[in-house]
């Protein structure tokens, strides 16, 4: 099922929590929803899952609008809300059975669905405990299990890995990857490596507005013009090389990485920079022993887009 | 309806798991039993085989116990955020409200049902007015249902259980005594209207054994208004 968000706006008082966002998520796509705290990620997710109604705009899921067919749409969505709220006084199995029943799963299938979810999320050892007795990681698994119990075509996960230890994070990411093969997944996070590890596409919002939309690579390429290159030039006077590099038109800034080894970090202004550096070395008969693109990190893009 | 019942069952389980139900039933039976059978102006004092004194006492005990049952229902779900988890499943606000409401009604019915031995005892002592007694139970159930609707509304406007409890009592006290009290100081139509608003007036007329549609409509309206306002209050999350 695909998700189509059209000009979505939501105001809280005079403040626009979501400001005119439009977005299309194709079936089987894993979309990473990124943004600083308070950017509107959670609000957007609450609207998609029909918890709150938008002021303007519409969300169309599988051809149905949330304004007309909320109840029908809800059946196809599995949702893990922020902070993973659960009925803590219930036992794991009781809780999952409750969720299964309320999702309208046939009585005869409830048991088997619950058992399957417990298996998938690795809750087997904890299944007879009360939810309140579980550790945070296991609660998170219960949250994921309740979201997936009715085998929804769409999964909306608000910070699915928050509060988990590194091993659990890897497992959950793997699980999301596997699920994403058939399902449409939207997950929000502010952990950037997580997006790179799990998502097909990244969507960055800031102050309710869309600021970037694309794959990790396209986002990187956008700032490729401002690439940083690591250069090492042997057989030359370091100061002389430094000035020469600095004088290049396509170079904006040079600094020493390791002075004794003649290694420099060259901040480029355009794509021509690598060519120019090479030619410079040839002219001066310097030996170029290293020229590696110093990858622009997603962090930098994120900071650049959301700092203001 | 099936979804309402699933929610009702969960609420009932939660009542009994957390011992709330047992404590409520024991206290209710203890209080009303003590004042009905042991304290001064009890059943024996009246000199008639009737449960009237029990109804008068239960009228007060239920007034305090019902807000204690309902205060948690929506306030806690809002505080812990589970309301979001619940409402993003294929249920509507109304399903949730009715589910919780019916759970409260069932618990009240159980508590009232457990006073059935009182009826048997009194019936053994003398010639009891069975019709009047049934009306008395009906009256108790209907005031409970009214206060449960008010309590549910109080629970929907806050995240704090204590605030919900006190709000329910505050609204309840108007119906319980204040309207009748105010009516006493008023003349003519205003007095009549105030009198009509009073829960006590309708309770007394019904528990006396007079089955009047006026009273039934009154209880029906209070219940409807309570639940209706709860639904409106729940929808307010859209414009926080």
Descriptive notes:
- The complex is a heterodimer of chains A (308) and B (240).
- Chain A is an alpha/beta fold and 308 residues long.
- In chain A, 36% of the residues lie in helices and 29% in strands.
- Chain A contains 11 helices and 14 strands.
- In chain A, the strands form 3 sheets. Chain A has a 6-stranded mixed sheet with strand order 6-7-8-3-9-10, sandwiched between helices. In chain A, strands 2-1-4-5 form a 4-stranded antiparallel sheet.
- In chain A, strand 1 and strand 2 form a beta hairpin.
- In chain A, helix 3 crosses helix 4 and helix 4 packs across helix 5.
- The model of chain A has no long low-confidence stretch (mean pLDDT 85).
- Chain B has one domain.
- Chain B is globular and about 60 Å long.
- The chains are: A alpha/beta (308), B mainly alpha (240).
- At the A-B interface, helix 3 of A face helix 1 and helix 5 of B.
Q: How many β-strand runs of chain A?
A: 14
CATH class of the largest domain in chain A: Alpha Beta
- Helix proportion of residues of chain A, in percent? 25-40%
CATH topology (fold) name of the largest domain in chain A: Rossmann fold
How does the major sheet of chain B shape up?
none
Distance between the termini of chain A: 36 Å
Number of helical segments with 4 or more residues of chain B: 12
SSE pattern of chain B:
HHHHHHHHHHHH
Topology order of chain A in helix (H) and strand (E) letters: EEEHEEHEHHHEHEHEEHEHEEHEH
Give the beta-strand count of chain B: 0
Mean pLDDT over the residues of chain B: 88
- Overall geometry of chain B comes to globular
Strand order, largest beta sheet of chain A? 6-7-8-3-9-10
CATH superfamily of the largest domain in chain A: P-loop containing nucleotide triphosphate hydrolases
Residue share in helices of chain B? over 70%
Strand content of chain A: 25-35%
Q: Mean pLDDT across all residues of chain A, rounded?
A: 85
Instruction: Supply Rg of chain B.
Output: 19 Å
Helical stretch tally of chain A: 11
């Amino acid at each position: 099922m695909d998700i189509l968000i059209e000009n979505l706006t939501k105001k809280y008082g005079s403040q626009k929590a979501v400001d005119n966002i439009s977005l299309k998520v194709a079936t089987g796509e894993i979309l990473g929803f990124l943004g600083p705290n308070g950017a509107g990620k959670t609000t957007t997710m609450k609207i998609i899952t029909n918890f709150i109604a938008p002021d303007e705009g519409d969300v169309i899921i599988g051809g149905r609008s949330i304004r007309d067919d909320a109840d029908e749409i809800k059946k196809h969505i599995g949702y893990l809300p922020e902070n993973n709220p659960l009925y803590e006084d219930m036992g794991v199995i009781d809780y999952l059975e409750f969720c299964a029943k309320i999702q309208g799963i046939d009585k005869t299938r409830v048991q088997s669905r619950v058992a399957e979810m417990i298996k998938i999320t690795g809750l087997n050892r904890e299944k007879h405990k009360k939810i309140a007795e579980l550790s945070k990681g296991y609660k998170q698994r219960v949250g994921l299990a309740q979201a997936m119990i009715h085998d929804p075509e769409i999964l909306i996960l608000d910070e699915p890995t928050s509060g988990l230890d590194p091993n659990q994070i890897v497992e959950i990411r793997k699980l999301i990857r596997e699920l994403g093969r058939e399902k449409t997944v939207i997950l929000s996070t502010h952990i950037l490596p997580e997006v790179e590890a799990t998502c097909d596409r990244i969507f960055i919002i800031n102050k309710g507005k869309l600021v970037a939309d694309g794959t990790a690579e396209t986002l990187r390429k956008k700032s490729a013009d401002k690439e940083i290159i690591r250069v090492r030039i042997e057989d030359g006077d370091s100061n002389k090389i430094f000035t020469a590099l600095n004088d290049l038109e396509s170079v904006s800034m040079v600094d020493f990485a390791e002075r004794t080894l003649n290694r420099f970090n060259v901040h480029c202004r355009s794509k021509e920079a690598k060519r120019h550096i090479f030619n410079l070395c040839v002219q001066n008969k310097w030996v170029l022993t290293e020229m590696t693109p110093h990858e622009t990190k997603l962090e930098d893009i994120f900071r650049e887009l959301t700092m203001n | 309806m099936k979804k309402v019942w699933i929610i009702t069952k969960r609420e009932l389980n939660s009542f009994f798991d957390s011992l709330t139900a047992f404590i409520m039933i024991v206290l209710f039976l203890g209080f009303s039993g003590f004042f009905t059978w042991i304290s001064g102006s009890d059943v024996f004092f009246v000199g008639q085989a009737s449960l009237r004194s029990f109804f008068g006492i239960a009228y007060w005990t239920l007034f305090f116990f019902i807000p204690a049952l309902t205060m948690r229902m929506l306030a806690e779900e809002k505080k812990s955020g589970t309301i979001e988890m619940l409402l993003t499943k294929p249920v509507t606000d109304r399903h949730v409200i009715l589910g919780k409401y019916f759970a409260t009604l069932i618990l009240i019915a159980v508590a009232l049902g457990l006073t059935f031995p009182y009826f048997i005892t009194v019936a053994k002592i003398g010639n009891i007015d069975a019709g009047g007694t049934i009306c008395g139970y009906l009256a108790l159930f209907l005031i409970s249902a009214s206060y449960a609707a008010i309590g549910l509304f109080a629970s929907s406007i806050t995240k704090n259980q204590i605030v919900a409890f006190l709000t329910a009592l505050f609204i309840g006290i108007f119906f319980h005594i204040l309207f009748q009290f105010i009516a006493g100081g008023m003349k003519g139509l205003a007095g009549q209207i105030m009198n009509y608003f009073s829960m006590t007036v309708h309770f007394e007329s019904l528990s006396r054994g007079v089955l009047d549609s006026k009273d039934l409509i009154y209880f029906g309206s209070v219940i409807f208004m309570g639940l209706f306002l709860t639904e409106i209050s729940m929808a307010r999350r859209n414009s926080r």
